[in-house]
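[09:14] KT: can someone run the structure on this one? pasting the chain below
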Amino acid sequence: LHSHMSQGQQHMSSLAQATPTHTSVEERLGRLERSISSGSAALAAAGSSTSAAVELQMSQVKDRIQYLESLIGDSADKHRRELEAAHAKIREHSERHSQELEATDQKLQQAHGRLDQLHSHVLQSHQSVADHHVAASQTLEQRLERVEQM
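[09:31] RB: done, structure tokens below
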């Protein structure tokens, strides 16, 4: 674009040098209009080629952006799937842990019940032994009393 503007300025400069100083205002206006017209045509040509280059660059930038967006989208989809799989594993482990905890709690309650039964049995046995000991002591005392009375 800059080179086309320089060419237009050079063209204007050469026209100004070639024009005699004693020309009429109408002639000078005509030349100026022709010069502007040729300069704007040169600028339009330069602008259209520049415009095409800009459009090509914009198209390439859009393509690159679409490519990057697809990479980011693919990456986000991959991470979403990985997170969903991880959450599914966590739910599975949590359910299994909950079931194991429930089973352990039931076993603990059974063991506690059995321990209570054994404790009651030991107490009963102890009471029975104590009762037997008391009875034996009483019979021993009674025997001693009889022996002494004899």
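[09:33] KT: thanks! Helices lie at 2-18, 25-149.
[09:34] RB: yep, looked fine to me
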